[in-house]
Amino acid sequence: MNLKESRNHIVDTFIKELKSHNGEWQQPYFDHFLRPINPTTKIKYTGINRLRLVVYSYDRNYKDNRFLTFPQIKKNGYKLKKGSKGILLEKWAVSGKKDLTKIDDVGYKEILPKQINPNEKRLFLQNTYYVFNGDDIENLKPLENKHIDSNKRIDFIENLVKKLNVKVIIKNNIVSPYYSPSEDSIYISDKKTFRSIDSYYSTLLHELIHSTGHKNRLNRLKPSKFADEDYTKEEIITELATLEICKKLSYTFEDIKDICNNSKSYIKGWLENLENDYNIFFETFKEVEKIEDFLKIN
Fold first, then answer.
1. Hey, what's the torsion of the CAs at 135, 298, 58, 240, to 10 degrees?
2. What angle do CA 147, 150, 154 make, to 5 degrees?
3. What is the DSSP letter of 176?
4. Residues 113, 115, 121, 123, Cα dihedral to 10°
5. Which one of 59, 120, 125, 185 is most buried, by most CB atoms within 10 A?
6. Residues 151, 149: Cα–Cα separation, whole Å
7. Domain termination site, one of 145, 167, 182
8. How far is CA 205 from the centre of its chain?
9. Low-confidence ranges of the chain (pLDDT < 50)
10. What is the pTM of this model?
């Protein structure tokens, strides 16, 4: 499978699986949302390489989120299990007269205006390499289970409210929680109206992620009407960022079911646009990574 086929496979897998479950996020997706990492370099995979590893982890039902190159496996005295299959990743660089700037596969648009003279000729260089999952590596130290308990999750989200300086307004007549960009406020009902304390805080987290799009933060939000293209795009970005961060915070799928149940109508519209333009998929995940970086979620 070449790089173009590999990219298409990523999007095709998401479309196929979401359609097969009537446009709903399911437990298996959530189980594989933990961010892939290279345990030797401690570097977390980003961009399209991250998406590849998440999709292939889902395809192959990997339980480990660690990926190493074959030279790293050999150097550390590990052993690759017989029949193991690698995953093809890509690395890009911009070559010039005086430097060689390494970039990720979706980040070149950001660095070009800042670091490169547009009048100077540059050459994009692409390299590929294979990585192998920790499930296929013998002698690798067992994956450490870093469970975060409910109190620490609550502290994290309460601190996020303070850090973002967003108003949280409690109103019990609210049918559905929402974020108001004009007021920079979150409207949500009292904790006791939710199924559990974790359900309340995961919902609050979802609205806090919307607030990162405010003009004084990431400036992502656009004027929109309910269910139009911009509204749908923002909901999908927020859904995916919520899934990512909730997984990091050790929430269970049951804890975030209320959020997932509300996303079905948005996913349907997003899938229709996605089938016409696969780039929408990569642009969406790029925004998710911006949110994680802004909130310093590692």
1. 170
2. 120
3. S
4. -100
5. 185
6. 6
7. 145
8. 15
9. 105-114
10. 0.82
Tell me: do 124 and 156 sit in the same domain: no
Kindly state the tokens that stand for 87.
């995953």
* pLDDT score of 106: 42
Q: Is 216 found in the same domain as 81?
A: no
CA atoms of 173 and 20, how far apart (whole Å): 35
Residue 71's identity, in one-letter code, is P
Cα dihedral 53→58→61→65 (10° resolution): 40
Q: Of 230, 204, 246, whose CA–CA distance to 25 is shortest?
A: 246
The pLDDT tens digits of the residues spanning 67-112 come to 999 999 999 999 999 999 999 998 877 666 555 555 554 444 444 4
> What is the bridge-based pairing of β-strands 185-188 and 167-170?
parallel
Give the pair of three-digit tokens for residue 107.
Answer: 């980040």
Structure tokens at 197: 């304390």
The span from the CA of 41 to the CA of 15, in Å, is: 33
CA-CA distance, 131 to 137, in Å (whole number)?
A: 11
Six-digit token pair at 295?
A: 């909130």
Phi-psi region of 23 (alpha: psi -120 to 50; beta: other; left: phi over 0): left
Q: What b/e sequence results for 83-106 when a residue is b if at least 16 CB atoms lie within 10 Å of its CB, and e otherwise?
A: eeebbbbbebbbeeeeeeeebbbb
d(CA 50, CA 35): 7
* Of 93, 114, 145, the domain-final residue: 145
Taking the C-alpha atoms of residue 235 and residue 70, their distance in angstroms, rounded to an integer, is: 39
Q: What is the pLDDT of residue 73?
A: 97
Under DSSP, is residue 185 helix (H, G, I), strand (E, B) or coil? strand
pLDDT score, position 94: 67
Q: Does residue 10 lie in a domain region?
A: no
At 211 the three-state DSSP class reads: helix
Paired tokens of 143: 């994956």
- Non-local CB neighbours of 261 within 8 Å, separated by 6+ positions: 24
Containing domain of residue 269, as a range?
150-295
How many other C-beta atoms can be found within 10 angstroms of the C-beta atom of residue 78? 18
